[in-house]
Amino acid sequence: MIEIPSxxxxxxxxxxxxxxxWQGAGxxxxxxxQEGQDTEACNFGQQVxxxxxxxxxxxxxxxxxxxxxxxxxxxxxESEHGYWRIREREVEVVMIRDQGVAEIWYGELAEGKPQIxxxxxxxxxxxxxxxxxxxxxxxxxxxxxxxxxxxKATPDTPLRPYMSAQLKKAVDPREWVADxxxxxxxxxxxxx
Length: 192
Description:
Elements: E1 20-28, E2 42-51, E3 58-67, E4 73-87, E5 90-97, E6 101-109, E7 115-125, E8 134-142, E9 145-153, E10 160-169, H1 174-180
Antiparallel strand pairs: 1-2, 1-10, 2-3, 3-4, 4-5, 5-6, 6-7, 7-8, 8-9, 9-10
């Protein structure tokens, strides 16, 4: 179920399905890292947060890390921070990556369903960042999960898939605190 907070800026209502903290796992194809070396394909974990403060944008934060065969964290992969806006169905995203990349993305909210297609419009890189010339992403809200797939290109490699994940909405225990005031003091009376 998609909840729309009462203090959400009216222009952001079409993006309400993104709100919250999402956690899950996915698959990363091999891609060039900051040292200029190709990485091997791997499974990764991810946490993404879309938040708002009443203004006309969503704040976006994503952290990914490589997982071993048992699902344990091995090492960080990528971190991203950005801001999402929407005007009618046109979505714009400004994003910064920890690898020294700044991007501007444009896209569109699908007609009648919670799905967003994005493509890079501009990419700026620091001298130490890995080769990268642009990308595409598809985000969708499917059966209560947030799913996404990303493609990337470099000056030497055409656009190709590089990461995809299925994320579940994380429950924030702070939301439960409001319900605790109705419990009996000893907690045992609740079960009688």
